[in-house]
């Protein structure tokens, strides 16, 4: 039995119409999914209060967008609580560190007086232990206070034109007696070109101080320091107590290598915070038994949103 031509044509037209509707529906669904993906990416990577907006389209897509918006609201609430708690913790650390300074000053004052008194050899040994532990407490207090200030977003760097060569030479000179005391003769290579950057002088001084202090702790007996015409600074030393895994954690808060003595694990963490606040970059690498810390500040003052 043959189907009449007009019925076949009608059936073909209906099928074509259905296919066209399905293709349009598929296009709209794909468009909505793409919008959701872009909105999610923006919400997760940027500070924005905008939610996912899907107008019209498939009901299932709208329900998906509503569910994602609920999760975004919860995420923002958690972020806000975290920021508030983090700021409160930093203020508590800063206040506690500040409050500890007064009793520590008194402790050192009495230690000085006791050292002038006549005492037995055993008492001298006990006194030496007390001073050593007090010095460790003082170092921890100072590092905690500095870290809380560095991590705080309330203070922006005070920019000025800084000669990197002069700043580096001053820092090396201040550490030179300590290096000599450990038998380390730094090999220094500094470009003759004047390299200037717009930086916070106090922050840069602290960064260099912390890097050199780290070298003093971990060096196996040598240290090379270089300042390139590009402005890149490199600090390299043999580090027998490190490896690639430990090197990756050197910038973590409170991370210390067991042989670091009084290290609080905050020195390089502070250096990284201050460096990034001024738009710079600091990194550590370990190769063939040598630790290299590279510090670089690009030319020009960073945008206000980066500090």
UniProtKB/TrEMBL annotation:
Residues 95-301 form the Histidine kinase domain. Its main location: membrane. Pfam families: HATPase_c, HisKA. The keyword Transmembrane helix applies. One of its GO terms (molecular function) is phosphorelay sensor kinase activity. It is found in: Membrane. It catalyses: ATP + protein L-histidine = ADP + protein N-phospho-L-histidine. The chain crosses the membrane at residues 6-28. One of its GO terms (biological process) is cellular response to phosphate starvation. SUPFAM superfamilies: ATPase domain of HSP90 chaperone/DNA topoisomerase II/histidine kinase (SSF55874), Homodimeric domain of signal transducing histidine kinase (SSF47384). GO terms for cellular component: plasma membrane. InterPro entries: BphY/WalK/GraS-like, HATPase_C_sf, HATPase_dom, His_kinase_dom, HisK_dim/P_dom, HisK_dim/P_sf, Sig_transdc_His_kin-like_C. Keywords: Kinase, Membrane, Phosphoprotein, Transferase, Transmembrane, Transmembrane helix, Two-component regulatory system. The keyword Signal does not apply. Its EC number is 2.7.13.3. CDD domains: HisKA. This is histidine kinase. It comes from Candidatus Allocopromorpha excrementigallinarum.
């Amino acid at each position: 039995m043959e189907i009449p031509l007009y019925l076949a044509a009608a059936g073909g037209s209906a099928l074509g119409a259905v296919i066209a509707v399905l293709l349009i529906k598929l296009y709209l669904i794909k468009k909505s999914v793409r919008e959701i993906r872009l909105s999610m990416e923006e919400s997760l990577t940027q500070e924005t209060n905008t939610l996912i907006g899907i107008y019209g389209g498939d009901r299932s897509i709208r329900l998906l967008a509503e569910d994602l918006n609920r999760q975004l609201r919860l995420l923002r609430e958690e972020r806000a609580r975290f920021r508030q708690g983090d700021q409160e913790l930093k203020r508590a650390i800063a206040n506690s560190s500040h409050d500890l300074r007064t009793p520590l000053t008194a402790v050192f004052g009495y230690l000085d007086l006791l050292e002038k008194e006549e005492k037995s050899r055993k008492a001298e040994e006990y006194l030496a232990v007390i001073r050593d532990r007090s010095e460790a407490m003082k170092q921890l207090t100072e590092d905690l206070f500095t870290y809380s200030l560095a991590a705080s977003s309330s203070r922006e760097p005070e920019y000025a034109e800084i000669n990197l060569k002069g700043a580096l030479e001053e820092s090396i000179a201040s550490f030179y007696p300590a290096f000599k005391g450990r038998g380390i003769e730094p090999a220094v290579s500094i470009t003759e070109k004047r390299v200037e950057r717009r930086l916070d002088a106090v922050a840069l001084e602290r960064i260099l101080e912390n890097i050199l202090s780290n070298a003093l702790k971990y060096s196996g007996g040598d240290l090379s320091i270089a300042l390139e015409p590009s402005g890149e600074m490199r600090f390299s030393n043999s580090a027998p107590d490190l490896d690639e895994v430990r090197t990756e954690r050197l910038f973590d808060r409170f991370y210390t290598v067991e042989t670091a003595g009084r290290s609080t694990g905050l020195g390089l963490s502070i250096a990284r915070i201050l460096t990034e606040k001024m738009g710079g970059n600091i990194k550590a690498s370990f190769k063939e038994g040598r630790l290299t810390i590279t510090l670089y500040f690009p030319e020009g003052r960073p945008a206000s949103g980066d500090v």
